[in-house]
């Protein structure tokens, strides 16, 4: 197998900021590459719920088209400040130190990366009106599972089950690594 491609420069910068902040909760590179590829198909406004230190945002930025913009919300003001450093002078990215729910007024979004780490907050019912028709929702951090309904830690994974079976979306679970999967759901 050949070596994986180099990281985009903006993603390397985000990793430097993360390291300096001592923050390690960022999306995997496999998820990041998927986000970049999806972002490259989008116009309008893309959003991320849960910025962390900006690694996922940087992956989105690496793929985004001219004219589209990315809004990302982070509850922790210190982390939001660190992430904002990465995108100083970048008119296509805005980092807000805020609860993600405050982004609702800027929707509906063409792509939504749900990454606040609180599954109960990102059910289909709560999110559906924030996504434009044809818009894409991405959720990561699932463990691949061959059973239906999907089981995580001995319990039905109701979040994954909900996103994969709701008729308002056409959704697929994509394995990005042997131990990790992502749900991609497109609004009908
Ligand atoms: C898994 S980390 C985000 C990682 C980031 N998306 C990345 O890929 O690098 C989850 C972040 O969501 C933030 N968070 C949790 N609840 C939130 C909320 N209601 N609004 C905004 N951010 C939230 C947490 O503070 C944490 O920094």
From TrEMBL:
Annotated SUPFAM superfamilies = S-adenosyl-L-methionine-dependent methyltransferases
Which InterPro entries does the record match to this protein? Answer: SAM-dependent_MTases_sf
Task: Share an example GO biological-process annotation for this protein.
Answer: methylation
Q: Per the UniProt record, which residue ranges are transmembrane?
A: none
On whether Transport is a keyword of this UniProt record, the answer is no
Q: Which GO terms describe its molecular function?
A: methyltransferase activity
UniProt KW keywords: Methyltransferase, Transferase
The protein, known as? Class I SAM-dependent methyltransferase
Q: Which organism is it from?
A: Nocardioides dubius
């Amino acid at each position: 197998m050949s070596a994986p491609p180099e990281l985009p420069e903006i993603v390397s910068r985000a990793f430097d900021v993360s390291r300096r902040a001592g923050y390690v909760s960022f999306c995997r590179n496999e998820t990041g590459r998927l986000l970049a590829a999806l972002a490259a198909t989008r116009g309008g406004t893309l959003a991320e719920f849960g910025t962390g230190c900006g690694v996922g945002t940087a992956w989105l930025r690496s793929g985004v088209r001219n004219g589209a913009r990315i809004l990302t919300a982070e509850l922790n003001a210190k982390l939001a400040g660190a992430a904002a450093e990465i995108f100083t002078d970048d008119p296509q990215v805005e980092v807000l130190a805020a609860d993600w729910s405050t982004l609702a007024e800027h929707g509906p979004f063409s792509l939504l990366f749900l990454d606040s780490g609180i599954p109960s907050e990102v059910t289909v019912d709560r999110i559906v009106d924030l996504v434009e028709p044809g818009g894409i929702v991405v959720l990561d951090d699932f463990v691949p599972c061959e059973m239906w309904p999907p089981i995580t830690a001995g319990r039905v994974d109701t979040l994954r089950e909900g996103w994969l079976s709701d008729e308002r979306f056409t959704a697929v679970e994509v394995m990005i690594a042997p131990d990790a999967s992502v749900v991609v759901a497109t609004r009908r």
